[in-house]
Amino acid sequence: MREAIDAIETGFIELAEGNVQMPNRQIMNNISRNGWIGVMSAYVKNRIIATKIVTVYPDNPKLNLPTTMATIILNDSETGMPLAVMDASYLTSVRTGALGGLAVRYLARKDARTVGIFGSGVQARAQLEAISEVMNIDLVYIFDLLPEASKRFAEEMSKKLSIKVVSVRKTDLAVINSDVIVTATTSKIPVFDGSLVKPGTHINAIGSHMSDMREIDTETVAKSKFIVDLKDVAIKEYGELIIPISEGVITSDHIYGDLGEIVTGKKKGRVSSQEITLFKSGGLAIQDAVTANLAYKKALEHGLGISIKLD
Q1: What is the count of structural domains for the chain?
Q2: Which residue, 76, 95, 98, 72, is CA-closest to 85?
Q3: Is residue 229 part of a domain?
Q4: In Å, what is the CA distance from 68 to each residue of 145, 189, 254?
Q5: Of 2, 46, 130, 284, which has fewest CB within 10 angstroms of its CB?
Q6: How far is residue 295's CA from residue 298's CA, in Å, rounded to a whole number?
Q7: Which domain, by its residues, includes 50?
Q8: Contact at 8 Å (CB) between 101 and 108?
Q9: Which of 175, 125, 182 is nearest to 154 (CA)?
């Protein structure tokens, strides 16, 4: 995870410096199955070509299948030759978690010690793992609509990360007691009351990925320094921004900047211990490209993988 965070940081620097070609994500909806399909590609100048097909089917757990599944193809940037085909379900969770960790590195208070997490799935686990790499955590509050799921998360992650994780049954407890809040759900409506967010809080909103979905309410968005992965994508796809704009509460100018601008120092991140910072991401192809490239290099280093010939 630490390597992935560093790779994501490098990728966002490349993006901010104009060294990345990244077409708009192609989106399709399988309405009859409540499914979402995305095709995401990125070319990092003279380094990486990657394309991912990802599906999000919220009803899959009923079939004992993951909600999110994906496949990545990595190509040689000089010849275009396919280098690797890899399952990207795990890589998607890692790259999204790593991005959350990167946001906390740059936007959370340096004295932040407590984390509140909404959702207890694969992505919630990846977020906590990444945050633990960049922040000294004393206590984690986990809330899930399914009590058994949050209890299981608390037990597993307490053991894995050697930190105290407690399951809570009231959303308020995960908000008022946390320096960093993470939303990693498939909810279409806000998951907590924004009036409870205390000054100095940092929020990672990474669960929703469509224009009619939002995990964060308008009040929280309006009073936050709002940072996104990429503004051009955010104003078209992110419900956390689109819905408050439609309500007339904010305009697109409410976006303070892209995370790449913060990482490169073009814009300052947190400037006081009292401001509320909110990072919203729906996922970018640059994350997939650099994470897949990292996995590919490590596979070569350790002699892993199966060689195939494409005729």
Answers
A1: 2
A2: 72
A3: yes
A4: 19, 20, 30
A5: 46
A6: 5
A7: 2-91+286-302
A8: no
A9: 125
